[in-house]
Fold:
Amino acid sequence: MSFGFANPWALLLLPLLGLVLWLMRGRERALTYSRAGTLAAVAGGGARLLARLPGWLRTGALALLIFALAGPRTGAAVVDVNAEGIAIVVALDISSSMLAEDFAPDNRLAVAKRQVRDFIRGRTYDRIGLVAFAGEALTQVPITIDYEVIFQSLDQLRAGAGLLEDGTAIGTAIATAANRLRRAPGESRVMILMTDGENNRGDIDPRTAAQAAAALDIRIYTIGVGSEGVAPIPVATGPFGVQYATVPVSIDDELLTEIADMSGGRYFRATNPEALDSVYQQIDELEKSEVEVSRYMSYTPYYLPFVLLAGMLLMGEWGLRASRFGRLP
Structure:
């Protein structure tokens, strides 16, 4: 939960209050009295402390009122914010081959999820959606500017966990992501397709899906995730730990390049985590189109407790001033 102020400029009054009190120091009231001994008996150490208390209470009340004027808040009231951004859908491969650990110590999916998360954190007002695919595709998060929802969905994604039929249905993934983007307002719509394999599932041809996406003015950036050569992939867990098999890396670079070219996008091959990070940086630089979006932020104001406490302090001050402590110096 975030904490902030609706009117942070009001906090500048606090040092001003301190300056006023400093300038007024030493201006204590004096009383002319013919019998000083009598006054000394009345004004003991405790009495002098109580005599100063009204001033302290007023100072505290003024500080609390300034704090209330600043408008402390955390969540609740809805505030509309006009901003600019683009629509992006990330289609992420979660087939079992994404468990390959050629990005040791992490597997491909872990690295891809971390890079997607970092990429989203670098956006401010872009509307982003998430599609997971393997042998079939499923929208995990529709296009939204609530990035926390996307982060939670990313955390829940597991490769080869049975959420989707295993395999690689690139055409189905493109069609699902394009369906989410086709009605997104604005001139710039982007799809980021991340996969580590070849199309071997689904009824939709990837090239046909890419042509349809291009007709909707959707630009597709394809990313081949995985090293070149062979990669270790876990195949079983036994009494001596996880057992691995070394399998050849097979990414259809030609198909992914063709898909990107059809839509005016670009194909990247990420052979290590650093390369994947570089890919996102390039995409971030390429897409500068802007559209108007509305972002909803919610806050709950917390000024009332400070006002009530200030009122209690002022009542205490008035009560003390009405007593003899407020009348004797």
Notes: Residues 131 and 139 are 4 Å apart (CA to CA). The radius of gyration is 33 Å. The chain has a mean pLDDT of 81.
